[in-house]
Amino acid sequence: MVNRQFTAAGPDRLWVADATRIPCAEGMFWLAAVRDAFSRRIVGRQTSTRCDTDLILAALEYGIYSRDVRDGDLIHHSDKGSNYTSFRFAERLYDNGILPSMGSVGDSYDTALIENFWSTVKIELVYRSQWRTRDEAENALFAYVDGWHKHPAHPERARLPQPGRIRDGLASRSGKPDRARIAHPATGR
């Protein structure tokens, strides 16, 4: 359905999802994430010691809870891993009017949007850190994920729009109520 076209006309039209392993002194654990193709933001995330359907469902639920998901407007794209092809996962997508899409087997290009995020988070955070506990790792990962792209280093100099402002601007033009805006910590705007 997606055919490696990771663009969307607006927020919450295409989500791409996957899970990856994260090391810490207590052992490996899994981080699942759901990324919006329009804003490029992580809209759902969860960790677990097991990469099972519960982990994948928890990341999806986080996204559904935190976003404006409407019946038939959203495509959820993933690989063909057993968790994404499970009956429980398909049922949850159906219950929320989310259309499923899957790439071909063993082809990371079919989920390139989320693979790109994994590469970035591992290079910028995971490979530079040594966490003693899973709690330490989770706190660092969630702080990174929740702050990712919210505040560019120099938004005034770069003249780059912030994803939240893009989404809010579209909402006001589309007749939807504006979502609360988050002030930039340095400027207060």
From TrEMBL:
Gene3D superfamilies: Ribonuclease H-like superfamily/Ribonuclease H (3.30.420.10). Residues 153-181 have a biased composition (Basic and acidic residues). InterPro entries: Integrase_cat-core, RNaseH-like_sf, RNaseH_sf, Transposase_IS3/IS150/IS904. PANTHER family: TRANSPOSASE INSF FOR INSERTION SEQUENCE IS3B-RELATED, TRANSPOSASE INSO FOR INSERTION SEQUENCE ELEMENT IS911B-RELATED. It comes from the Bacteria. Signal peptide: none annotated. It holds the Pfam family rve. Residues 153-189 are annotated as: Disordered. The lineage of its organism: Bacteria, Bacillati, Actinomycetota, Actinomycetes, Micromonosporales. This is DDE-type integrase/transposase/recombinase.
